[in-house]
Amino acid sequence: MSTLVLLLATGLGLGALYFLVASGLSLIYGLMGVLNFAHGAFLTAGAYGAWWAAENLPGAGDDGFGFVVAATFGVAVGAVFGAVVELVLIRPLYRRHIEQVLVTVGLSLAAVALAQGIFGADPRPFPRPGWTSGTVSLLGASVPTDRFLLMAAAVVVLLALLALLRFTRVGLVIRAGVENRSMVEALGIDVRRTFTLVFALGGAAAALAGVLGSVYLGSVTPGQGTSLLIFAFIVVVIGGLGSITGSAIAAVVVGVTQQLANYYAASGVGDFSVVLLLALVLLTRPQGLSGRPA
Questions:
Q1: pLDDT interval class at 157 (50, 70, 90)
Q2: What is the pLDDT of residue 67?
Q3: What is the mean pLDDT of residues 12-20?
């Protein structure tokens, strides 16, 4: 029983990490129709931003509140990076989807190379808080504390994004701008600024995933964003393109499935089982779990 509880808890923690990456990806695609293959670069930028802050900003390397300072700096780096990418690269390419794919794929490759050139290719130990190395007893199982941190962050991000889109004026402008941009602009509202905000939010969510993913892994590497982005795309497709709630459900399913398969079958089978799950969903429900039929 304790083994199953541990597997489920760690699967939920892994799913929470996948959701944090996928939430920004789903937000950007769902509201703007931009399939951003450079999303992993936002994650890497946030992770290295937090790592740099912990090494260089006064007090940011301290245990406890210092981690909050470093994480906040990393999230800010991701948000700024996302806004700059939208302003410089994406804004001229709206409704030109092939060019968007080429540009974002190129940016993702360039970002990895740039990170390797600046920080080196070797993993850098991430300054994680001491309390994240502990465990919590749950139904006889000793669950690592960092899994609960991931789950709490995922719930907060999910609720915050849903509240933003449904109950705020900014969310109303975003949704209206997607449906009829010309009409919204005729009312004197600058939709371009709103779309830049969406990219900044997506970058911030990815950066948070990079920071907490580095806590989970214990280190930060230039290719970290790329590897996590693969599973984020799987989560987004299974959940339904553009559905944040669907991505949350899919992330839980993917994380738990991966952990159970790795333990009860063999190490590495978890990744294969996730691909099989993706194929099954595409064959039986192409629009995803929460998507609408075409």
A1: very high
A2: 81
A3: 91
Output the DSSP codes for the chain: -HHHHHHHHHHHHHHHHHHHHHHHHHHHHHHH----TTHHHHHHHHHHHHHHHHHHSTTTTSSSHHHHHHHHHHHHHHHHHHHHHIIIIIGGGTT-HHHHHHHHHHHHHHHHHHHHHHH-SS-EE----GGGGSEEEETTEEEEHHHHHHHHHHHHHHHHHHHHHHHSHHHHHHHHHHH-HHHHHHTT--HHHHHHHHHHHHHHHHHHHHHHHHHHHSEE-TTHHHHHHHHHHHHHHHH-TT-HHHHHHHHHHHHHHHHHHHHHT-TTHHHHHHHHHHHHHHHH-TT-SSPPP-
Give CA–CA dist 151/157, Å, rounded: 10
- C-alpha 89/C-alpha 87 separation (Å) is 6
pLDDT tens-digit series, residues 197-210: 888 998 999 999 99
User: How far is residue 16's CA from residue 170's CA, in Å, rounded to a whole number?
Assistant: 26
Answer whether 290's CB lies under 8 Å from 235's CB. Answer: no
Domain ranges of the chain: 20-222
Distance between start and end Cα atoms, the chain: 43
219-276 tens-digit pLDDT: 888 888 888 888 888 898 888 877 888 889 999 999 988 888 887 877 777 788 888 8
Residue found under tokens 């962050």? 153
- pLDDT tens profile 41-76: 999 999 999 988 888 877 665 666 778 888 899 999
Q: Which of 225, 227, 291 is nearest to 30 (CA)?
A: 291
pTM of the model: 0.88
| C-alpha–C-alpha distance, residues 60 and 53, integer Å | 6
